[in-house]
Amino acid sequence: MPYRKTPAEVRRLEAARDHLVSCATAVVAEVGWAQASVTAVADAAGIAAGSVYQHFPSKAALAVEVFRRAAGREVDVLGQVLRGDGDPVERLAAGVRVFARRALENRGLAYALLAAPAEPAVGAERLDHRRRYRALFAEVIREGVADGTLPPQDAEITAAALTGAVGEILVAPLGTAGEGDTGALLAELTAMALRCAGADPAAPPPRTTTRHPEGTP
Amino acid sequence: MPYRKTPAEVRRLEAARDHLVSCATAVVAEVGWAQASVTAVADAAGIAAGSVYQHFPSKAALAVEVFRRAAGREVDVLGQVLRGDGDPVERLAAGVRVFARRALENRGLAYALLAAPAEPAVGAERLDHRRRYRALFAEVIREGVADGTLPPQDAEITAAALTGAVGEILVAPLGTAGEGDTGALLAELTAMALRCAGADPAAPPPRTTTRHPEGTP
DNA sequence: GTCTATACCTAGATAGAC
DNA sequence: GTCTATCTAGGTATAGAC
């Protein structure tokens, strides 16, 4: 018997943990945090309820890991877009669009991350991630103010507004099963975001996918 | 023994029920929905836990009543301001200001109404009330678009954005105990709201200081 | 290491005394 | 009508078998 786990063992354990987190994420996206009991998650992962505690010390720890992994992906994607190429206004528009599109493509998960009732530990994590969204938006807004494409403003406030606005707008479509016209929704959302930051409406609107200056395809 | 309750009895019962709802509201504002157990609420009202069920068939029913009463007040106040005197842009600014000021004056309750984790029944009620906020904002925005003081836009989207933006901005101050400069916060918030709706920045900004014809004096 | 069975706790709800 | 005491359900976490 080796004193340490063999590399194969370690990998297997990590894989099992990964699988558990993935399945838990799926369950949460499907039924929400409140209904995602340890037994439900364990069932989804094909293991016994007790076995969950081989990987996480508590249900809260598992929930936090689920949230961190999913929300972290979103923050990373948003960060890449907002810090990408182009002028600040273009990047802002692209960021909002990407954020919204990803949420609409995975509504259950987005709702869980943004709005669904959750235990305090997850709620704290959510606040933290919203702060990170805000910081990313605030950064690009400050750039815009600095180079004169955006009017002077409290970047933190506008950033918070954008986070809240996008979330609020998405929650309604998220709740309903109805599809709606996502193209038009994205266009209106982007237009609203640019107004909110004070971008010059006279300037040519950043291209969406196929150029709909008035939002109607 | 009378076949029906005497008027005095009815009044006494209603008063007891009222008192219970008031105390429950205070508890919720203080510790949030999750910690507002039946026993905690009953203690606050000075009655036994079992007696709660003389007035409400379930905890959820009580919670919904608490939410309805508190949120209904806010919707009414907002509606009065948004449908009051002045041009649409002024009313919009006043509405945002009143909404925010009232929330900041009663942070615990505002947080409970806007964001705190709650059971599904309350969550559904919350969605419904947010729809009502949106409808009110959308109405005044449509008026502004109609009379040309606001640019063409999807009023529902902007309204949703305003609801989310104000909520998001308030949640941070709401969570922290710190006071901050509420005057500056209100001014920035109003400015953001007007930008968001596309109000002409060149126009003189609606007054923000002194005179309180609206809200709690 | 994983499963089965279970202990335990919290919190909503009920029954009967006063 | 209100209180005390209790019942019950649901869900987390643990212990011991395999």
Descriptive tags:
DNA-binding, 217 residues, homodimer, mainly alpha
Structure annotation, total helices of chain A: 8
Order of helices and strands of chain A: HHHHHHHH
Structural class of chain A: mainly alpha
Separation, N- and C-terminal Cα atoms of chain A: 67 Å
Mean pLDDT of chain A comes to 88
Q: Biggest β-sheet of chain A, characterized?
A: none
Oligomeric status: homodimer
Low-confidence stretches of chain A: 210-217
Outline type of chain A:
elongated
What's the total number of strands of chain A?
A: 0
User: How much strand of chain A?
Assistant: under 5%
Radius of gyration of chain A: 20 Å
Q: Largest interface here, residues on each chain?
A: A-B, 38 and 38 residues
Describe it:
Two copies of one chain form a homodimer. The first copy, chain A, is mostly helical and 217 residues long. In chain A, 70% of the residues lie in helices and 0% in strands. Chain A contains eight helices and no strands. Chain A has helices at residues 7-35, 38-45, 59-82, 88-105, 107-114, 120-146, 155-175, 182-197. The radius of gyration of chain A is 20 Å and the shape is elongated. At the A-B interface, helix 6, helix 7 and helix 8 of A face helix 6, helix 7 and helix 8 of B. Chain A binds a DNA duplex (18 and 18 nucleotides) through residues 13, 37-39, 47-54, 58-59.
